[in-house]
Amino acid sequence: MLARYLPILALIAPIVFGDVQFTSPGAGISLTASGATFKISAAWKDSGDSPSLADLATYSLYLYAGGNAAGTYQQIGGPLATGESFSAGSTVSGSIATTAGADIDNA
């Protein structure tokens, strides 16, 4: 039933937040289900602001849906990546159940 995501992707490092610029997915994307899951990929690059991604070791990536204001969004499903190394690249893919976020506005 969940046919559209308005993802707010958060890149979280253990103590500091790296300053990334997501290059995909774009805002307002639509995902097509493959069976009981959606596959989503994210790509990013260093924004050029401090701290540099080269100064960071690992990241975790979560998918959120809802609005932009605090308290109007919530996490959908589990993390797309946990404890991944920045040195391994700047893309990640994961799957989300088609039922995830069914009760969230704008999901």
How would you describe this structure in keywords?
mainly beta, 4-stranded antiparallel β-sheet, globular, disordered N terminus
How is the secondary structure organized here?
Elements: E1 8-12, E2 20-24, E3 37-46, E4 58-66, E5 73-75, E6 81-85, E7 91-97
Antiparallel strand pairs: 1-4, 2-3, 3-7, 4-5, 4-6
Write up what this structure looks like.
- With 107 residues, the protein is mostly beta strands.
- The chain has one domain (8-97).
- The chain is built from no helices and 7 strands.
- The strands form 2 sheets. Strands 1, 4, 5 and 6 form a 4-stranded antiparallel sheet that branches. A 3-stranded antiparallel sheet has the order 2-3-7, with no helix packed on it.
- The N and C termini lie close together (10 Å).
- 21% of the residues are buried.
- Keywords: Signal.
- InterPro entries: Kre9/Knh1.
- Residues 1-18 form the signal peptide.
